[in-house]
Amino acid sequence: MSDVAEGLPPGSVSIEYEPSVEEGVAAVRRQLWRVGNTRKQMVIAVVLLLAGAIILAFGGQISAFGWVGIGGGLLILLSYALLYTVVARRGAEQAVENSGPKIMDFSDEGVHIQTKDRETNIRWTAYSEVTETQEMYVLSHGKRFFTFVPKRAFCSSSDEEAFRVLAERHIASKSSPV
C-alpha cells in the first residue's frame, strides 16, 4: 500500500496482510496477561504453594491443610498453563481461519477492518490502550477484546509512523506511550 491509500484522507494509513496463527497466539496471550485477575491469581497460586509446603514441613497434625494449599496452587497454575497454551492457540487458529486476508484503514475517524466476509468500523474512543511489542501493536478495547496490527504489514516506515501518530493522538491520553 502507499502512504495514503486511495480514498483515504492525508495522514491515514491502509495496510493489507494475511494474519498468522503465531501472531494471533502472541496477541491473545498478551491480552490474557493484561486482564487484571491473571496476575493476582498467579500470586495467590504461589502463596498457596508456599503455605502448603510450610504447613507440610512444620504442621504436624494439620498436614492435610498443606496438601489442600499445594493442590489449590497447582490447580490454578495448571489451569493458566492450559489457557495460555491450548485455548490461546485454538482461539487464534479459529480467528485466522475465519478472517483470511485482512485490510485495515486507520484515519482520524477510527479503524476500518475488512476481511473476506466482514467489514467493521471501530471508533478510536472504543480503544482504551495501545501497546507496542517487537512484532505488533495491540489496541485494546474492553478487558477481553483487542485488535492486533503486525508491524510487518506496514509497507514503509512512514506508514508505521503515520499509524503511531494516529494512535498517540487518539489513544495515548488513556494509556502508556506507544
Task: Explain what you see.
The protein is an alpha+beta fold and 178 residues long. It folds into two domains: 1-18 and 100-178, Pleckstrin-homology domain (PH domain)/Phosphotyrosine-binding domain (PTB) (PH-domain like); 21-99. The protein has four helices and seven strands. A four-stranded antiparallel sheet has the order 1-2-3-4, with helices on one face. The chain has a three-stranded antiparallel sheet with strand order 5-6-7, covered by helices on one side. α1 packs across α3 (63-99) and α2 runs antiparallel to α3 (63-99). The two termini are 23 Å apart.
By CATH, the topology of the largest domain is PH-domain like
Low-confidence stretches: 174-178
In DSSP terms, counting alpha (H) and pi (I) runs of 4 or more, how many helices?
4
Helical percent range? 40-55%
User: Roughly how many Å is the radius of gyration?
Assistant: 21 Å
Major β-sheet profile: 4 strands, antiparallel
Please tell me the CATH architecture of the largest domain by its name. Roll
Overall morphology = elongated
CATH C-level name of the largest domain: Mainly Beta
| Strand runs, count | 7
Oligomeric form of this entry? single chain
Taking all residues together, what is the mean pLDDT?
84
Throw out a few tags for this protein:
alpha+beta, 7 strands, four-stranded antiparallel β-sheet, 178 residues, three-stranded antiparallel β-sheet, 2 domains, PH-domain like, disordered C terminus, 20% strand
What's the short story on this structure?
This protein is an alpha+beta fold.
